[in-house]
Write a structure and sequence with these properties.
It is built from 5 helices and 5 strands; from the N terminus they run H-E-H-E-H-E-H-E-E-H. Helix 2 crosses helix 4 and helix 2 crosses helix 5. The chain has one domain: Arc Repressor Mutant, subunit A (Orthogonal Bundle), CATH 1.10.10. A hairpin with an 8-residue loop joins strand 4 and strand 5. The strands form 2 sheets. Strands 2-5-4 form a 3-stranded antiparallel sheet. A two-stranded parallel ribbon has the order 1-3. The chain is an alpha+beta fold and 124 residues long.
Amino acid sequence: MTTTLDEIYKFFETPPPFYLNKELAVCYVLAVLLRQDSYGTELINLLETEYPTYRLSDTVLYSALKFLEDAAAIVGYWKKVEGRGRPRRMYQITPDWRERADELARLWNNYTKDAVVQAVGVSK
């Protein structure tokens, strides 16, 4: 199969989404939970809305949530979400983890900021 220059330019104009690994997912989840309690589907949708070039698979998300629960960083509770049929498993940061969550959320914010700077640098 032969690649053309046009295909190369098209790739960089509209690159495929980048799927988060568990390490990035942990930091992303904490960044969101510092702002508001949330549930799995909402976390995935927020990522796609706020960071259109990133994606998060269910498998990686729930692995990150389990890691955070096992570390006592977050707790889950059931809540009926307005306009939804069944209750959702909501997550929130535990008080003892707020400071560490801030540090890890900063890693996420710096990572995404650096990715934007690199992308802008590539297009110049």
